[in-house]
Amino acid sequence: MYTIILIIVVYYYVRLGLWLMRRARDRCADRKARWIVGTAVGLVWFGLLFWYGGGRKYYYDWQVEKLCAKDGGVKVYETVRLPAEEYDQYAKRNWILPHITQEKSADKYYYEVDYHHYRKGNPQMTRRQAKIIRRSDGKTLGESISYSRGGGDLPGPWHESSFICPPISKDRPGLEVSIFLRGDKK
After folding, report:
1. How confident is the model at residue 78 (pLDDT cuts 50, 70, 90)?
2. Is residue 142 within 8 Å of residue 175, measured between CB atoms?
């Protein structure tokens, strides 16, 4: 379904570009000028179409990769060995720790997230820094820094694309799994 819509959208973008080239070319009397004007209008139109349809995505993906290479990833400052029961409880809930705004006095750990938007709009570019903090002494146990790009696609009925660095995968342990270790059963 989306493929058909994409083909139709591209078809009309190409038709519009050809129509603009013809209109610009028809305004010139000299044959050589007609060719130059038509080619220039076509190059500008299809260059803008490429930039708007994909070029800016590649540009911002490149920017995300550059920033990610500087300080992206998981940094562990201290590991915590949890009893097996407590570890299983957190793991079963997919390591959902309370946010700093929702932490209670009974919570041993909480997380804090900070977002910095390098670019808002379409496409957007964001830095996300998450920290896990021990409540008893306020010490940061570790942090995770990631960069992302969202959007930048041609307008249409499809979902916008995104790019995250470092990539999320099963092979790379997350922040919680890097900090909290399973203790021995007693």
Report:
1. very high
2. yes
